[in-house]
């Protein structure tokens, strides 16, 4: 069994084994003609259930054959141009190289003595990102597992900085289309059930700052404490960007922590054409960035950045065995002092290898391409009488719904759209997402693949229309 341990004596086996895995994936990618096979839970679950985990196969090739059956064949492939659903990007090869290296070396970036250069590389990337945002000389931050954790940590710091002894009085302001992790964080942080005030959005799905000003005033008047305003730079459903300069102004006036959730919109930080859309982000107290959304990085790769490094002390705890207090005086860099996690992956390496290979502009240009594509998709949808499209995209999301000529019942139109999404998924021809707008069911394309073309969009719209019509035809048959 020791032959499976990665060390000086097994380097050759490591090379062979990993190469075999890489070959499988490469072959799969070269032959995958749909983003999904359409496999059902009922068909797949028994194949996984029947595997006896107490009887190992003891052979890499056999394990990979089995994996083909239980995973690779039926996985959802984000690299496919007709995967248009959630905020999953295709990944760049330099990042995969970084991933392979980081898991083999297996540094843990909680302490210097478990990572050495890993800690310094992560720190450089935090500084680089903070510099791109424009947070100023006292900025700092740390890599996290994702936007949810980044938002949680930012709100933890905001809660502590609010310096209110009464948690029940704290209020967080976020637009009605902000990410649900804001509410989840409020709950985890022990805030009141009604602590998150939902601020209405305008017709472009951007936070209404007049309403925010009113809510902040009301909060003060009611003797409550505004803990944070969460501005979203790239909402999950619409890609809309809240008016950051105006929100910054209101936060400054009311002395409220400004958090910018740029989990999605962070790709604009490197965009040669669209960086201006993030104007005002430099005034934030904290920012969430998800490199695994718009920097073409594999899951997971995210960070929380703060304007004032000192605020990270709210996440600092010392343990004699790991990061004793004296290490701070000795200037030993232990990232665990800033993180909610202890053992932590060296995810930063993926971004490092990516930047050193393609450069920031290279990533930004890819992101610009998907934003350009969304503009084309918008024109297609706006000109197509079969569809109602919600807002012109600020980034790369399109929300729309099929509207049959002959049907006026909104509930029936809902059912036709829900059916179309399901049928498309079952066919595996394309994967699209869905959401609700004004209580009605809509479909959503999140465009993150520069390989997707306007023709792909047009073809998927035809498929959706076909499935919806099929449903409506069947429904008429059922009624007659
Ligand atoms: C705006 C926004 N914030 C936060 C998140 C949560 O990020 P993660 O899924 O990486 O936890 C998402 C995820 O889609 C998001 O769109």
Automatic annotation (TrEMBL):
Keywords: Decarboxylase, Lyase, Pyridoxal phosphate
Listed transmembrane segments: none
Gene3D superfamilies, A to Z: Aspartate Aminotransferase, domain 1, PLP-dependent transferases, Type I PLP-dependent aspartate aminotransferase-like (Major domain)
An example molecular function term from Gene Ontology annotations: pyridoxal phosphate binding
Modified residues (N6-(pyridoxal phosphate)lysine): 293
Superkingdom of origin organism: Bacteria
Gene Ontology CC: one annotated term: cytoplasm
GO annotation (BP), single: carboxylic acid metabolic process
Pfam families xrefs: Pyridoxal_deC (PF00282)
Cofactor field: pyridoxal 5'-phosphate
Assigned protein family: Belongs to the group II decarboxylase family.
Official protein name in the record: Pyridoxal-dependent decarboxylase
Annotated source species: Streptomyces ruber
